[in-house]
Description:
Layout: E1 5-10, H1 16-27, E2 30-31, E3 34-36, E4 50-52, H2 55-63, E5 69-73, E6 76-80, E7 89-92, H3 95-105, E8 108-113, H4 116-128, H5 134-139, H6 141-149, E9 155-158, H7 163-174
Parallel strand pairs: 1-7, 1-8, 2-7, 3-4, 8-9
Antiparallel strand pairs: 3-6, 5-6
Helix pairs in contact: 1-7
Amino acid sequence: MHDKLFLIVGATASGKSTVLQKLHDDYQCAVLPTYRDRDPRTGETSDYANVFLAKHRFSTLAIEGYFDHIELIHSRRYGFKLQTVHNRAIASMSPSGAAELKQKYGCKVIKLMCETKVLQERIRARLDRGVAGMGPRFRNIQFETDAIANLKSDLEVDTNVHIETTINTIVQYINVG
Length: 177
């Protein structure tokens, strides 16, 4: 069942959200939502890919066993409910979470690779737009890229190129559209 779950892994600003959105919107690919233990930032809302929960609600669901997998990243908890995967689906995941789910369930891992300089430029643009939480990510970008480089994956995609090239490569791999 979980061999039809494709985990998108990449550093901050590598294009994970853009890839998920395009696969969802243009190819009707199911997205496994990420449950987050924080309020949405300005301009964010819960949608097909992200569900924002108050910390106490997230904790209650976690205690009740609602999530199949929980990650702690940058002092935030992220929950996933894998039982909802019945057909081909995609999700954004950390390198450690992807490695664990690949080993445990046979999920497929797709790495989004991007040059550090390009990632820094993209993060700097987010900082300039006032996106919260980008400062620590800018400082830790080398740590993120090293963790991703060491992850065993089923497909590696260059996100330095035009987004449509990236999407076409992934679409061919997961065989949608």
